[in-house]
Design goal:
Strand content: 5-15%
Oligomer: single chain
Order of helices and strands: HHEHEHEHEHEHHEHEEHEHEHEEHEH
Strand order of the largest sheet: 3-4-2-5-6-1-7
CATH superfamily of the largest domain: P-loop containing nucleotide triphosphate hydrolases
Structural class: alpha/beta
Number of strands: 13
CATH topology of the largest domain: Rossmann fold
Helix content: 25-40%
CATH class of the largest domain: Alpha Beta
Radius of gyration: 22 Å
Shape: globular
Length: 424
């Protein structure tokens, strides 16, 4: 991974608690990204943060480190029980990713982490909460469900983190967010952090209503899109999109590719043609059972699955390293989705390719996309060699969702409590 995305601020200069410095050293993290360098010194002093940064810039590590440092350094009453910190995320995939990052950075803290989200594991997630948790990560619906049943309480929350706040509005979760926030101690009795790709007026209204004089941190970039994404566009008829896709796959020989489409039906169709023509691919869309979706994401992240065909359910909040190519088989109908899609590549200093197909059905969104990103996407010619003859598609096997989800990934826990109780 390239290093020119980093600042000259080392984590070792930030007075983080020893267990966090040890986990950072193990993970090979030495210098902060800009959002980390700008927010961590403030958050470590207890300052509320409203942060804006592009996707893939290290936001998750910034707020996780700040939260865990606070928990490790702040004593609690001997009879008090957690959760002490809560991270609210808009999607299941993002909740899983945050949980994984928190376990990595908090591996030596002795803290217990739990992720709760819909679609799978209802009973196992409930049992994990009942066993006690220090840091709770989840999506609004499942968090409210368990809270109303009394599975956990919010009266001892010391730290609240809202991730992808703009997405919360897009998905209609703000009423649920406000419900949860009002069940916690008042804003001046807790630490609050909000992160968003854009700090719009509606996001800032939420921040000022439920936070304690937040410090606004904006990490601006010269370009809205990631600077090291090489963008290209083909004007192609809908009939020729499959042969063009296969031609590009042969020409580019990508190692790890995400192909975005606008509908679940197209996702199945594209995946079928890829499988039928010798490419190993998986499909990620809203009707895939949650367990299957997580298995696909994990296989893709490990490099065992080279191609993932996805609807916009996967366009935000996922950190998947080393994605070499993003292909917009369908141009998105929302201009911001274009940025989020191609942001799956060229993450945290790496470079990557984003190739888009503009067909007669979706080309109408191209002017808005180019206006939004402030540049024309370079157009490439379609040569005869790119339009491959292809074999018929392979029929996809659909899996019935299981009656109940599997257990979450196990790990050993430190039996000792995380921090000393008050004396006397």
């Amino acid at each position: 991974m390239q290093k020119d995305h980093l600042t000259h601020v080392p984590f070792s200069s930030l007075s983080l608690t020893d267990s966090l410095l040890e986990s950072l050293e193990d993970a090979g993290f030495v210098y902060c990204t800009p959002i980390q360098a700008a927010t961590l010194p403030l958050a470590l002093k207890g300052q509320d943060i409203a942060g804006q940064a592009q996707t893939g810039t290290g936001k998750t590590a910034a707020y996780v480190l700040a939260a865990l440092h606070h928990l490790m350094e702040t004593p609690v009453a001997e009879n008090a029980t957690g959760p002490w910190a809560i991270v609210i995320a808009p999607t299941r995939e993002l909740a899983v990713q945050i949980h994984r990052d928190a376990e990595l950075l908090g591996r030596y803290t002795g803290l217990k982490f739990a992720a709760v989200y819909g679609g799978t594991g209802y009973d196992s997630q409930r049992r994990q909460l009942e066993a006690g948790v220090d840091v709770l990560i989840g999506t609004p619906g499942r968090l409210i469900d368990y809270y109303k049943q009394g599975v956990y309480k919010l009266n001892h929350i010391e730290i609240v983190i809202l991730d992808e706040a703009d997405r919360m509005f897009d998905l209609g979760f703000i009423t649920d967010i406000r419900y949860l926030l009002r069940k916690m101690p008042s804003p001046d009795q807790r630490m609050n952090m909000l992160f968003s790709a854009t700090l719009s007026n509606r996001v800032m209204e939420l921040a000022y209503e439920h936070m304690n004089d937040p410090q606004v941190v904006r990490i601006e970039s010269e370009h809205i899109t990631a600077e090291k994404v090489r963008q290209a566009l083909y004007h192609v008829s809908a009939h020729d999109k499959i042969p063009l896709l296969l031609g590009i796959m042969r020409q580019q020989d990508p190692k790890r590719t995400m192909i975005f489409v606008n509908t679940k039906r197209t996702a199945d169709r594209v995946t079928g043609y890829l499988l039928g023509n010798g490419y190993d691919a998986g499909v990620l869309s809203g009707d895939i059972p949650q367990n299957k979706r997580l298995q696909l994401l994990q296989a893709f992240q490990r490099g065992e699955l080279p191609i993932l065909v996805a609807t916009d359910v996967a366009a935000r909040g996922l950190h998947i390293s080393d994605v070499t190519h993003v292909i917009n088989f369908d141009l998105p109908q929302d201009r911001e989705d274009y940025v989020h899609r191609i942001g799956r590549t060229a993450r945290i200093g790496a470079s990557g390719d984003a190739i888009s197909f503009a067909c007669e059905e979706y080309v109408y969104s191209l002017p808005e996309i180019e206006d939004f990103i402030g540049q024309k996407i370079p157009v490439l010619p379609i040569t005869e060699e790119l339009l491959l003859e292809y074999k018929p598609p392979k029929r996809l096997e659909r899996h019935r969702p299981p009656l109940s989800g599997g257990e979450p990934r196990g790990r050993s826990r430190n039996p000792h409590h995380r921090r000393p109780a008050h004396r006397g």
